[in-house]
Amino acid sequence: MRGRLSAVELTERTYLPEGAAIGEVYEFLEARKATTGSGVGSGYLLVGADTHEQVELPENLYRILLQVVEALKHGMAVAIAPLAQTLTTQQAADLLGISRPTLIRLLNAGRLPYERVGTHRRLRLRDVLRYREERRAEQYRFLDETAVPLDEEENPAEVIRSLRETRHRLAAERRRNV
C-alpha cells in the first residue's frame, strides 16, 4: 500500500467520456440496480490482478462510481476536486456559490459554525455541505410555494399579483432568517 499522495494526485482533475468500457460498466451497474432495486448492497468487490486480491467496495464509493459512470455514459465530463475537511472562508463561499462577504454575514449571524485559527475563520466541510443541502431544500420549498396552476378562465393580472405577493412574502421570510 502506498503512503502519502503526491501534490499532483491531490489537485482537481477533469475526466472526459472516452472509451467503450464506460458503456459496459454502466450496463453492469444498471443491470445490478434492476435486480436489487436500489443497486446498493454488499457484494461489490474491487479485484486486483491476483485472484486473492480483493476488497469490498463501501457504499459511499459505490455511489461515487455510479454517479461518475452515469455522467460519463451521458457524454458529460466529470471533475474530481479533493477538499480538506476544513475550509477557508473563500473555499466555503466558492462551494456554496456565494460571495465571501455574503458568507461572512452568514457566519456573523450564526447560520454556519466556524472556528478561529489565529485571525482566520475555518469551517468544517461537513457543516458547509449540510448548510448547502438545507439551503437547496428551502429553495425548492419556495419554488413549490410560488407554483401556480394556470386556469384558462383565471385573470392573468390576478395570477401575476398573487405571484408577486407570494414572492414578496417569501423574500421577507428569507431576510428574517439570514
In short:
The chain is an alpha+beta fold. The protein contains six helices and seven strands, in the order βαββαββααββαα. Helix content is 52%, strand content 13%.
Describe the structure using short key phrases.
single chain, alpha+beta, two-stranded antiparallel ribbon, 6 helices, 7 strands
Overview of the molecule:
The chain has 178 residues and is an alpha+beta fold. It is built from six helices and seven strands, in the order βαββαββααββαα. A hairpin with a 2-residue loop joins strand 6 (115-117) and strand 7. It is flat. The model has no long low-confidence stretch (mean pLDDT 82).
Stretches where pLDDT is under 50 for at least 5 consecutive residues are: none
Number of helices: 6
| Helical content class | 40-55%
- Radius of gyration, in Å, reads 23 Å
**How far from one another are the termini?**
47 Å
Work out the strand percent.
5-15%
Major sheet size, sense and barrel closure:
3 strands, antiparallel
Count of individual beta strands: 7
